[in-house]
Amino acid sequence: MRNIYKTLCLAAGLVAMTSCSDFLDQTSPSELDNKTTFNNTYYTELTVNKIYGSLTQDQAYSNFMPIIAGLNTDCELVDGLGTDASNTSSERGNMNYNANPGWTQLSRVWDVMYGIIENANLVIDGINNSELIKTKGDDCDTMLRFRAEAKVLRAMIYFDLIRLFGDIPFATGASDSNLENVYVGKTDRDAIMEALIGDLEESIPYLPWAGGTTYTTERVTKGYAHGLLANIALTRAGWFIREAAKEGYVTATENSDPAYPTQRCDDEKRHEMYKLAEEHLAAIINDNTHSMTPTLAGYWNGVNLCELDNTYRENLFEIPMGLNNSSELGYTVGFRVNGAFPGGVSEEHNYGPKGNSSGKLKLTAPYYMSFDAADQRRDLTCALMQIRTKSGVYKEDMLGNAPFAIYCGKWDYRKMKNRKDGWWDAVKASDQKVCSGINVVKMRYPHVLLMYAEVMNELYGSYNTGGEYCSKTAFEALSEIHTRAFNGDKAAAEAHLTKLINEQGFFETIVDENAWELAGEGVRKFDLIRWNLLSAKIDEFKESYRNAVNNGSYPAKIYYKFKEDNFTIDVTTFNYNEPVEAGYFSANFFGRETTDAKQEQLLVNLPSISAGLNRVVKNRYLLPIASTTISTSNGKLHNSYGYSD
User: Fold this and answer.
1) Which of 638, 52, 616 shows the shortest CA–CA distance to 322?
2) Measured distance CA(643)–CA(641) in Å, rounded
3) What secondary structure letter does DSSP report for 529?
4) Cis check: omega of the bond before 547, within 30 degrees of 0
């Protein structure tokens, strides 16, 4: 796709790092010694680019982190239902919280992520020992920027590892050749987050804001560093399941295990972290480098076309991927193309001999039904149809009664075919999976506004005149997101928002807005965790579905028309009452479960969803450390939370 990906791949091939052990998954020795490499800005940039390039591995950000790691929540599910939900050899069981230390994916993720950390540590150490940073001038400034980039990327990786595994080994220096500093035990995650905050505070002054084509959002920017720091601060202030109770911490009254309690820091520390988040979120808002694309359709169309936005820069940081090399966005998550192109129909709808779309990430019926009818995010996010051959006809087809198997339509083959990088030709020519090359967005501006609204509501209230650093109110931040979702109709958006706030409170409205805006993007699970709402929201989703079926409040049929091409379903024609005019088709809908003799969705699939979350240990959302990782740790690592080694 873009030239930066070619540069990253070149860097990965040209520059290798010092080897140490399988535990940290190191690469082979470099042909250039550190003195030569880090006293030259060109070679140093190659080593930094290698860090970016290593982010594109499947077990890092091509697949696992943006798609698998964020499952399951109240609105996002892995495609494991019934007996599949207890399959501990795949994500279908493990992401239903039936995790097993023997799952091979665990060690792969661990090794890849720690390998990236080691690469970052080598860069940071090399720059710290460089003669160039002892001088003044452009070379010194460039090296300090490179070091800041490496520190932010390292902080990002550590933060994600904490959210996956809890307490983990923490090293900020490169591994010794004698391995003396390789085999280490766990560090408390709060201490790690404090260190990461310090690294980010130190790095922010050396990073530029995204601007033009010279320094784009495909590199770590000042905006992303501010946003990452704020996210870490809010997580530091939030709830976490603990290996043991911590003195002086607040223990949750709900969803807390007696042996492994869910706790947060005391009120004083919490206030400090919210103030820190306020400062850094306000810095992003006040600078005006980042804003929202005017329309939702425009934003997601640009994502699918792999067009880098240098106007609004809604994405604060997007990891650059490469066509047919990395990124499963559009394949493992996205609108479903179910089966090969059969020929004999319009070439416009040819997606190749594989079909090339699995849609492993699913959305739920209660989530779909929660949207206001005027909210454009519903039909953009929730795809109730797929492309497949049915009764010998190849066209779009409604899913029917599939309350836990709605596809996430944000990534969409129908939009991707208009790309200019040859993606469509690659798909049509291959009977194998074609990686989409769509960039993985680590943070976008609506998430900044959601965090800001949360912070302002916590510190000042929802309808205030602004805080210490920014005049924007909590309501204004939330309204900005909501208004775009209502196609710019500010009056209608604010009326709906005010109604929600009056009915359920401001914080609960933020929680809902988080789902409507960010579902499928690997964000919601970790926000629910820090709010200690993961278990409660999953219970609420299940109860909502159960009540809707038992009360007969879901429509049994959905009626729809096709567009003029007689291939594409027109979502604007969706109707739940039998239409009187001709030209409508019908399909079963969620209410079909009411009269289904088996009621498999209600009686088999629903109970299996996220069933392991409270089965052994309450609120056990953290993954275990892999058995193979533990066995090679020289006795330094052991599992907790009721997991075996």
Assistant:
1) 52
2) 6
3) H
4) no
| Residue at token pair 């084509």 | 213
Residues forming a β-bridge with 319: 440
Half-sphere exposure of 127 (CA within 13 A, CB side): 27
- DSSP line for 422-489: SHHHHHHH-SS-----PPEEEEEHHHHHHHHHHHHHHHT-SS-S--SS----HHHHHHHHHHHHTTT-
* Tens digit of each residue's pLDDT (9 = 90 or more) over 124-165: 999 999 999 998 899 999 999 999 999 999 999 999 999 999
Sign, Cα dihedral of 467, 469, 475, 476: positive
Q: How many helices (H) and strands (E) does the chain have?
A: 23, 15
What pTM does this model have?
0.95
Which helix H or strand E contains 421, and what residues bound it?
none
Distance CA 530, CA 265 (A): 11
DSSP states of 240-263 as a string?
A: EE-SS--TTPEEPSSS--SSS-EE
Pairing outcome for strands 569-575 and 361-363: unpaired
CB 610 within 8 A of CB 537: no
Identify whether the C-beta of residue 312 lies closer than 8 Å to the C-beta of residue 423. Answer: no
Alpha-carbon distance of 223 to 285, in angstroms, equals 9
* SS3 labels along 85-110: HHCCCCHHHHCCCCCCCCCHHHHHHH
CB contact at 8 A, 625 and 101: yes
**Phi and psi angles of residue 329, each rounded to the nearest 5 degrees, phi first:** -65, 130
| Beta bridge pairs of residue 385 | 398
Question: What is the C-alpha separation between 64 and 327, in angstroms, rounded?
Answer: 10
Q: How big is the chain by its Cα radius of gyration, in Å?
A: 25
pLDDT in tens, 33-85: 788 899 999 999 999 999 999 999 999 999 999 999 999 999 999 999 999 99
